[in-house]
Specification:
The chain is an all-alpha fold and 85 residues long. Helix content is 59%, strand content 0%. It contains four helices and no strands. Helix 2 crosses helix 4 (68-83).
């Protein structure tokens, strides 16, 4: 059996306040990363943009993203896009 609290802490360990998100990129790269993120999410499970915005990518008042997996997915998309250069 797993410790649910420990699992939750692991999932929310990173937030937009994390220094990982301080990297400077061009608008072109930001757009390509957004496109890659949407393609990756849709590859796993096709979805509509309203769900993406309101349930997956929404930034909460405390600065965290509504779905903790979105941050890692974004960083994976960033790696895919920037490593193609």
């Amino acid at each position: 059996m797993y410790n649910a609290h420990l699992l939750w802490q692991t999932l929310v360990a990173m937030s937009l306040k994390d220094t990982t998100f301080d990297e400077k990129i061009t608008l072109r790269d930001a757009y390509r990363i957004m496109e890659q993120l949407i393609m990756d999410v849709n590859e796993r499970s096709p979805t509509d943009t309203e769900w993406l915005h309101h349930m997956y990518l929404r930034i909460c008042e405390n600065g965290e993203i509504s779905d903790p997996a979105a941050e890692e997915d974004f960083l994976n998309a960033r790696n895919t896009v920037l490593n193609k250069k």
